[in-house]
Structures are given as structure tokens and as C-alpha cells.
UniProtKB/TrEMBL annotation:
Top-level taxonomy: Bacteria, Bacillati, Cyanobacteriota, Cyanophyceae, Leptolyngbyales
Pfam families documented for this protein: CPSase_L_D2
Domain ATP-grasp: 221-479
Name of the protein: Cyanophycin synthetase
SUPFAM superfamilies in the record: Glutathione synthetase ATP-binding domain-like (SSF56059)
Protein keywords: ATP-binding, Nucleotide-binding
InterPro entries to which the protein is assigned, alphabetical: ATP-grasp (IPR011761), ATP_grasp_subdomain_1 (IPR013815), CPAse_ATP-bd (IPR005479)
Length: 636
């Protein structure tokens, strides 16, 4: 067992009763001296005046929540603390936290745990600290309540949406560099001229005209009709009286929805009479954005199941059936009790990454129950199943069922034909059909609407059926491999402005059309042109990598920046180290298999390439640049 060190005289953050102290907590946005990823890093120590319980007692309590920890060997309190932070960091949402490090440093232990969102990670560290102290004092700690709060914190972050997080994790798995542009509120995938930017499933390669066109349900529906695609017959109305007239002409049942809208807000299907129509019209009007005029669609309501067909880059990739939330009676429980019982099942954890959300009770649900002659206080007969909504809203507790393999070839062709008419990377097609295994040409099939920014979690994590890796389809549209998302990067630990310009000039002699970004402690440059230097060093690096014309980056990372902020990016093609410190040697730690590392110690130079090391002495007047420029030539 590793002996944990104690804080002898001065507590840093610990309270007088605490057995543990946590201090120097910071968030690194990328590789750092402790870990090769973004991380929450902090110092851990025991408080000498308050001895902890035995390590086994902490393992027993924490293992009750996380049984996997009971099967592992923990060398010290610090190791257990790090492992607990890593497990809690997954937030019971299957977040991709796989790396942590524990390093003894004199009287303290340095802990680093992979992190996604700074504020959430900080809160997790303090939550685990409180949990350990509660165990020390033999007090009950409501970790499940804390997890809910932490989940909400993460959900409110830019990474908390299921689509954004799925793309972020997939990019990480594929080796595609990704970072968030806070001022633009966009995610960037790839560096420099290789980059793609986007919001969820909308990307800068998409036609914004086509995207806006899909939000106008009337024009889009007319366009699909002109192309011969099956859309339900209907009309646009502006008043309640016009809606009643249109419904009479079309024939009940009808559906009502606003012309401009999304996520099914204000949509009512299966309207059977004038009373229901008036109520549906009011709901549609209420859903119209304030800056839009009131235009409502009244159309024929098609009987069948609700499906989302998904196309990526014009190709069909997935289909999901969406069913409204339902409950099954037991002959003694009310509908309200059945809903409560269903919501307490493990499957309905109600997180952005879960297949099932909690069933939500609202006015729309109560109204639909009333239409069935029921209320929340009604007791259902044993084995009787009822739907709680007309619309299959997954965010309100609906059920997603993978239907990809059911698709009839005719319907796949239909989806692809529609997608080919839109310059959109990702396109969702909402349809009503009895059975996707039958050709749409047999009838009773209708296209309800087109979505330019569809969510993908229903395909990635359906409640029933196989997962379809839509994030991989999306990212591989732009990047065949992770390497295809990168530009060459040269990292140095110590370089002057003249040396930077010498490297840039050398590269431009071979590649005169390239745009080269360079940054060091003394300045920021595009080719030889000096640019604005931000006070935050990593912001300068980011500003270069977000430049859509950049072909190559040269970046200096000195010890002070690495210790304080870490690196902005992972991985260098060439690393040039001149008398590196132990911390600066991390630049050589985070390299690719085909990277080259050149290290100078006094007059000895070693070149690490393809698993081999070449070493020789510099001549008396031989400049170091002669060595590394020769290696840089391999990039050109």
C-alpha cells in the first residue's frame, strides 16, 4: 500500500473536522503535465489532526453505489479518491471518462481526472470530498441527490445536449480534434483548413437557405408534392373559421400545426370533430413565434405509426418508430400511480443520454385522457394498456424503437430521393405509415415534415432495438480518418521570434501557397505578418487553429504555460526540445506513431523516429536549426 501523506501544520481548504484536504484545483482544457487529456487536477492530502477511518470502510460505502470499485485494489486513500471522482464524473449518463492519474509529490498527492466541462468537474471533486468526510463522521450522504444536481449542471452546459455530446465523444474516439468556440457558439471539428464547424447536426457546409426552407412547412410540403412525394392533402388557414371550413372540406380526422415550428410544439393529430379542432387551433396559434404571422396548417390526419427516417450526406442510415408514452393497468392502481411507478424504473433515468425519459404529466396528457373517458385518478383494468398522448413526444416519455432493418427498398429510395434535393448533411423525414416493411407505394403513407437539424439520440440509443452509430456517419462525411482532420503541427519548448520566422521562411520556400501560423511568448504571426496577441496564451493557439486558411502551426510551449494552463491541442507531428525541463518533456509524450522528436541537451542531439533513436554531437559552430529544419522537410 502507498502511504498517504498528511498536511502537518497548515490546512489549505479543509475544515477543522475534515480528515482530507483538497487544494490547487484547476481545469486544464487539454494535455497537461498530469494527463494527456482535458482534466480536473488537484492536490490531495490527509489532515494529521483528524485521522480517517480504515480504507476498507470507505471502499465498502462507496462500493455500495459503485460495485465495480469493490472488485478493484486501491493502493491508498488518494487512489480511491481519484477512482471515485472518475466514476462519479460519468454522472450515471455513460459519459466517456476513462483516464485518471495519481502521483505522489512530497507531502501531497497530485490527482488528475479526465474532464469534459470545467464547472461540472469542479463540483464533482467537491461532492466526492463531502462524501468522504460524511463517511469519516459516519453520516448518511445522499449521493443520488447530488448526482441529480450534477447531471443538471452538465445538462445546462454547451456539451449537455445528447446530440452534441454524442458527436463530441465520437470525435474523441475517432481521433478528430474538437473544441467549442464560445464567442460563435459553435463546435469546431478539425484544425485550420481541415475544419468543419456546426451546431448539433447542422454544419457550415449546409445550405442555410435549404435549412430555413424546411422550417416553412407549407412551402416545403408544396415542394414535395410537386416532386410527386406523398404528402397529406391540406390547407393554410389564418382564422378559426377558416380552420373549421378547411377541416369540413378535407374530412375528419385532421391534423393541425403551425407553419413555422419545431419539435412537435403546437401539433395535434387525429382531430375528430369541431370541438377538438378549436382547441387544437388555439394550441397551434400559441406555438407561433412572436416574430411570425399566424399561419396554421390543417391537413388530413393519416392513421398509422410515427417514424423518423434519417439521411446523412444524401444516404439513408436509420429509421426509428416513436410511440407515445403508455401505461398498463393492474386492476387496482390509478393512472397517476402507474405513471409514478413507471418513472421510478431504472430505464427512465431522464438524462440527455438515456433511451427513455420520464413521463411528463401536463394539460395535453390530461386532455387526451379525458377524450378517452379517463383521468389521472382512473383505475385501469388489469393488462389494459392505454397511450397517454396523441403525439409520440420522446422528451415527454415516449418510446423509441429501431426500425432501420424493416425499411422496404422502395421507402429507402424515397428517403434518399428527398435528401438529394437538400444540401444538408443531416436530414430527418417524419412519416406516418402502417408498416415500413411494405412499400410506400401501397398507400396509407404520408410525409409529415422535414427536419434540417434532427436529434440523433433516438437512433444511437433506442429504447428497443439496435443502435445506429449516426455520429460516426456524420463525422466520417467530413473526415475519413482522424488524421484527415489535422494540419501539421510543430511544437517547441523554447524558440525566438527570429527562429520562428526562419522556420516559416524555410517552409514557404517549399510550399509558397501555404498559410503558416506561429506563436511564441513574444508574438503571434501569420507567415511573417504579426497579429494581435491575446493575454491568454492558449487563446492565441486557438485563434490560429480556428483560421480556416491555416496549413501548418508552429507553437512554443514553455514550462510556465504548461503548468498553469496545459496545452490547447493534443499531438504534434514534430517536437523540437531545446534543453527541456521535466515538465516540457510532456511535449514528447503526446505524439503520434509517425511523429519525430528532436531533443538537444548541451551539444548532444537525439532524434526519435519510428521507434528508433539517432544520436550525434553538434559541431562547434553548427546551429541546432540545421538539424530540425531537416526533419521539418519531411512534412513538406
Amino acid at each position: 500500500m502507498v502511504v498517504d501523506q498528511s498536511v502537518d501544520l497548515v490546512r489549505v481548504n479543509a475544515r477543522t473536522t475534515d480528515a482530507f484536504d483538497i487544494f490547487n484545483l484547476r481545469h486544464y482544457i487539454g494535455p497537461n503535465p498530469d494527463l494527456g487529456t482535458a482534466a480536473a487536477a488537484f492536490d490531495f492530502a490527509l489532515v494529521e489532526a483528524n485521522p480517517p477511518r480504515s480504507l476498507e470502510e470507505y471502499v465498502a460505502v462507496i462500493g455500495d453505489r459503485y460495485p465495480l470499485l469493490l472488485k478493484e485494489t486501491h493502493k491508498s486513500y488518494a487512489h480511491l479518491f481519484a477512482r471515485t471522482v472518475a466514476e462519479v464524473s460519468k454522472l450515471e449518463m455513460d459519459l466517456h471518462i476513462t483516464q485518471w492519474a495519481v502521483k505522489q509529490q512530497g507531502s501531497r498527492t497530485r490527482i488528475a481526472v479526465q474532464a469534459v466541462h470545467a464547472r461540472t468537474s469542479r463540483a464533482i471533486v467537491y461532492c466526492v470530498w463531502d462524501w468522504f468526510e460524511a463517511i469519516t463522521r459516519d453520516r448518511r450522504f445522499w449521493i443520488e441527490d447530488q448526482i441529480e444536481v450534477l447531471q443538471e449542471t452538465f445538462r445546462d452546459s454547451v456539451f449537455g445536449g445528447p446530440t452534441v455530446y454524442a458527436l463530441l465523444q465520437t470525435a474523441y474516439d475517432l481521433g478528430i480534434p474538437t473544441f467549442y468556440l464560445w464567442d460563435e457558439r459553435l463546435m469546431q471539428y478539425g484544425y485550420g483548413r481541415k475544419q468543419v464547424r456546426g451546431i448539433a447536426t447542422t454544419f457550415d457546409h449546409d445550405s442555410h437557405i435549404d435549412s430555413d426552407f424546411t422550417t416553412g412547412k407549407d412551402d416545403c410540403k408544396a415542394f414535395l408534392h410537386t416532386l410527386g412525394f406523398p404528402v397529406p392533402h391540406g390547407s393554410i388557414v389564418y382564422t378559426e373559421a377558416e380552420a373549421l371550413t378547411a377541416a369540413e372540406r378535407i374530412g375528419y380526422p385532421v391534423a393541425v400545426k403551425p407553419v413555422v415550428g419545431h419539435k412537435g410544439i403546437g401539433v395535434t393529430a387525429g382531430i375528430m370533430d369541431e370541438t377538438e379542432l378549436v382547441q387544437a387551433f388555439d394550441r397551434a396559434v400559441a406555438a407561433v413565434p412572436e416574430d411570425q404571422s399566424i399561419r396554421i396548417i390543417v391537413e388530413k390526419s393519416i392513421a398509422g405509426k410515427d417514424f423518423r427516417l434519417l439521411c446523412v450526406a444524401g444516404k439513408f442510415v436509420a429509421a426509428t418508430e416513436r410511440r407515445p408514452a403508455s401505461v398498463t393497468g393492474d386492476g387496482k392502481s390509478t393512472i397517476n400511480e402507474l405513471i409514478d411507478r413507471e418513472n421510478r424504473t431504472p430505464a427512465r433515468v431522464d438524462t440527455p443520454t438515456s433511451p427513455l425519459g420520464k413521463i411528463k404529466c401536463d394539460e395535453a396528457m390530461e386532455r387526451y385522457l379525458d377524450e378517452q373517458g379517463l383521468s389521472l385518478n382512473s383505475v385501469l383494468e388489469a393488462d389494459r394498456t392505454i397511450y397517454l398522448r396523441k403525439v409520440a413526444n420522446l422528451s415527454a416519455g415516449g418510446l423509441s424503437i429501431d426500425a432501420t432493418r424493416q425499411m422496404h427498398p422502395d421507402t429507402i429510395i424515397l428517403a434518399q430521393d428527398i435528401a438529394q434535393h437538400f444540401r444538408l448533411t443531416c436530414l430527418g423525414i417524419d412519416v406516418i405509415a402502417q408498416d415500413l416493411s411494405e412499400s410506400w407505394k401501397k398507400g396509407n403513407f404520408g410525409i409529415i415534415e422535414i427536419n434540417a437539424a434532427p436529434g440523433i439520440n433516438m437512433h444511437l440509443k433506442p429504447a428497443i432495438g439496435e443502435s445506429v452509430d449516426v455520429p460516426a456517419y456524420l463525422l466520417k462525411t467530413f473526415f475519413e480518418t482522424g488524421k484527415a482532420a489535422r494540419i501539421p503541427i510543430i511544437s517547441c519548448n523554447r524558440i525566438s521570434v527570429p527562429e520562428l520566422q526562419e522556420i516559416a521562411d524555410y517552409i514557404l520556400r517549399h510550399q509558397p501557397d501555404w498559410t503558416i501560423g506561429a506563436v511564441c511568448a513574444k508574438g503571434v504571426f501569420i507567415n511573417r505578418s504579426e497579429k494581435h496577441q491575446h493575454i491568454d496564451y492558449n487563446t492565441n493557439v486557438q485563434n490560429l487553429l480556428r483560421n480556416p486558411r491555416l496549413d501548418l502551426l508552429i507553437a512554443e510551449y514553455r514550462e510556465d504555460v504548461l503548468e498553469r494552463d496545459g496545452m490547447f491541442y493534443y499531438g504534434s507531428n514534430i517536437v523540437v526540445l531545446d534543453e527541456p525541463t521535466e515538465v516540457e518533456k510532456m511535449l514528447a509524450r503526446d505524439v503520434f506513431e509517425d511523429s519525430v522528436v528532436v531533443i538537444k541537451q548541451e551539444d548532444t542531439v537525439s532524434i526519435h523516429r519510428n521507434g528508433l533513436i539517432e544520436q550525434y554531437q553538434l559541431g562547434e559552430d553548427e546551429p541546432f536549426s540545421r538539424v530540425y529544419l531537416k526533419e521539418i522537410a519531411t512534412l513538406l
